Description:
With 686 residues, the chain is an alpha/beta fold. 29% of the residues lie in helices and 17% in strands. It contains 26 helices and 25 strands. Strand 22 (617-622) and strand 23 (625-633) form a beta hairpin. The chain is globular, with a radius of gyration of 24 Å. The structure holds iron/sulfur cluster. Residues 10, 12, 14, 16-18, 46-47, 50, 182-183, 581 line the site of iron/sulfur cluster.
Amino acid sequence: xxxxxxxxxxxxxxxxxxxxxxxxFDGRRIGRVRGSPxxxxxxxxxxxxxARYAERQHHPARLSRPLRRIGEKGAGAAAFAxxxxxxxxxxxxxxxxxxxxxxxxxxxxxxYYAGTMGLxxxxxxxxxxxxxxxxxxxxxxxxxxxxAGWLAGVGAKRGxxxxxxxxxxxxxxxxxxxxxxxxxxxxxxxxxRRERGAKLVVIDPYRTASAERADIHLAPLPGTDGAxxxxxxxxxxxxxxxxxxxxxxxxxxxxxxxxHLKTRDPAWASRVTGLSExxxxxxxxxxxxxxxxxxxxxxxxxxxxxxxxQLFAVSCLPAVTGAWAYEGGGALYSNLDLVAIxxxxxxxxxxxxxxxxxxxxxxxxxxxxxDQRDIGDGPxxxxxxxxxxxxxxxxxxxxxxxRGFARSDLFVCVHEQFxxxxxxxxxxxLPATTFLEHDDIxxxxxxxxxxxxxxxxxxxxxxxxxxxxxxxxxxRLRAHHDGFSMSAIELIDRxxxxxxxxxVESFPKGxxxxxxxxxxxxxxxxxxxxxxxxxxxxxxxxAIGPEHALLPAFPDHVAVIDEGGPERPFRLVxxxxxxxxxxxxxNTPSSVAREGRPTALVHPEVLHTLCLRDGERVRxxxxxxxVVVHAxxxxxxxxxxxxxxxxxxxxxxxxxxxxxxLTSADPGLPRGGAVFHDTSVWxxxx
Length: 686
Ligand code: SF4
């Protein structure tokens, strides 16, 4: 069987966007997947789940034909019968047209997210949406809160090159667990520790695999990171670590910040965070005396009602010490806006009608069940077209989501690689290609490369790409746009040219274009991205989102989190697991074997109080419902904190519904955003 090695790019919802090399047999099957040694961020390393991608690519449960539901919603594959592509697309077009005739075009809600991060296959659904005047989607489920927090201080979604971690003397991983979710960060940290003796601090409410490798682990209560950041800055000012020359030149109001922080001392933060004063002061001094300090800002602590304010507070630290000015210093949240890509053609932005309504993707449960806060005077959602996401598991308030999808008057089409829980609720299911079977282009959050990934395998069965499906529907719906008559690679080529970037034929061989800016730009020495060129210690929240009234201008602890009170004394964090990525990989044998079963990490003292032993079942609940999982005694967290890593399929839980039954669809401040880690719960024996 002839073997060759082919390049690709990981498409999954992960900042690393790894450059890959795959073993390919006979042009039809893949073997091992490795990180490309030629791309200097990936540096030959990928996570274990993608290294075993053959399990997913060649999984026996891959969908291979279009299906029409003939049985009960939610019953799975047995409730579907195969149909031809023409029959399927004709039926979808007819149902969308009928829904539009009954209620107007906004009754159709194309619903998508980041099952692939490729711009063509992910965002092309928006071209159809805009041309047809369907309802728009508020993309709130992942980065809305973190973006808002970063933009408040820095002004643009970019930061210091992730490779500079290797030049740092102190790396702070704040609210992330890269050992499990972004393994490449650890590669560069290992270099810094080996070559410079760098220290590693991890700030996370529980002792993750990353925290286990740290010199210092701080475990604040969920939703209190802003208080910790304020107290650290209090110490920086008080003990002479603040760089006044830097702040005078590059920040807006250092005197105001110092005055504001006078009362935010370690004793105050200790009461809020549950950390000791000594822990806070020790970390502050280490950070203050280390100029080459690099904060790798994760998403975890932003998934809270006060998440934007928390992330903003953390982003202020390098502006106080002036760490931004040093090689290996500063911070990185995401570099996704580093390269300006003209998305007009990809998303049909020239057809966007700003009067069409916007529905919040995180509130799909309330939306589908007719919540007036979401629907108002508008029509109900009568038709959903879903690509790249599995809201029956990943969206908050699963109880409402399940009720909504169960509506008999709702038409649902799902284009997927597997019969997910969402696909099982559909009327029509379409089989989707994987990234190995279609072309796409990928920016990245963690690094500075723009990458093109070409198809390296023929489509599985009758699978079609998202782009092909959108074009096929556009043709039937008489939707006209240049983008519907181009192939994926033609779209990529034209988009690159429109963006002033090298076109496909001039793109670097191997598909990776390093867009790293000069040092001064990467470190904001030629100005931060606000109009005045300064880092803003005073956030203009009103310019970022409408719900700003409770957000103070200076960094602070914003006490709007779900504290719960005596009835719900515990704080639940529904954290990512190592072997799943949202719901991708939660059906591959090695990932399931490694994760075991849905498990709650619970402090041993709490288990003792509940008269439970390690490994026994525990019920976790709140006003939205309850789930049963197995408890694991775990000392690496405060007793009030409970961790359930996921995301497991719903049927992995005893009562058929997963952890997002408990999470809230309340929007975070100031412009929405899912609050997955801001959940008060009770625990009880089963
Ligand atoms: S670390 Fe992230 S980008 Fe890299 S292979 Fe794994 S999932 Fe893909």
